[in-house]
Design brief:
globular; 2 helices; eleven-stranded mixed beta sheet; mainly beta
């Protein structure tokens, strides 16, 4: 499921460009470390809900000059951290547990961003370590929107979960 409805991939993973990335297994510096979701014309994206594509523990919920408002959901079973950047606001706090399809925040234009969009990135392990990033598409494409909503409604909540 896409983390934001009515969107399209506007910048693919590992796309070359003028990014502030270091060299790693994906090639020299200057490649995109995640997927950017932009608006589908003429539908604006700013302010749309951002939903978690994975279940897990919120390990990041803060402001950063590069990422802007960002949230990180760590899935312990898969050992994958999925981060969502440039949010207008955050609906979760560190220590919260979220289900698939849980609200994380809203699309914004914060941090190092030139327009309202969502940057989604995956890393191995519980930290956003640059050399550990991987293509987020498999993690984001596990469920359809309908499946995610059904899971969200039917699963019992983790004792520390937020809806």
């Amino acid at each position: 499921m896409l983390p934001v409805a009515v969107s399209r991939v506007s910048q693919p993973f590992a796309d070359p460009g003028a990014y502030a990335s270091r060299s790693d297994k994906h090639g020299p510096a200057g490649h995109h470390t995640g997927l950017d979701f932009g608006a589908r014309w003429p539908v604006p994206l700013a302010g749309r809900l951002v939903r978690s594509a994975t279940a897990g523990e919120v390990v990041i919920s803060e402001y950063n000059p590069t990422m802007g408002n960002w949230v990180g959901v760590y899935n312990h079973e898969e050992d994958v951290l999925t981060t969502y950047w440039h949010l207008a606001g955050r609906a979760v706090e560190v220590g919260d547990w979220v289900q698939v399809y849980a609200r994380l925040g809203r699309v914004g234009n914060t941090g190092n961003s030139t327009a309202a969009h969502l940057h989604a990135q995956c890393n191995r392990g519980p930290t956003c370590d640059y050399p550990g990033h991987s293509n987020p598409w498999p993690s984001l494409n596990t469920y359809t929107g309908r499946q995610a909503r059904r899971i969200f409604r039917s699963q019992p909540l983790h004792p520390r979960a937020r809806r």
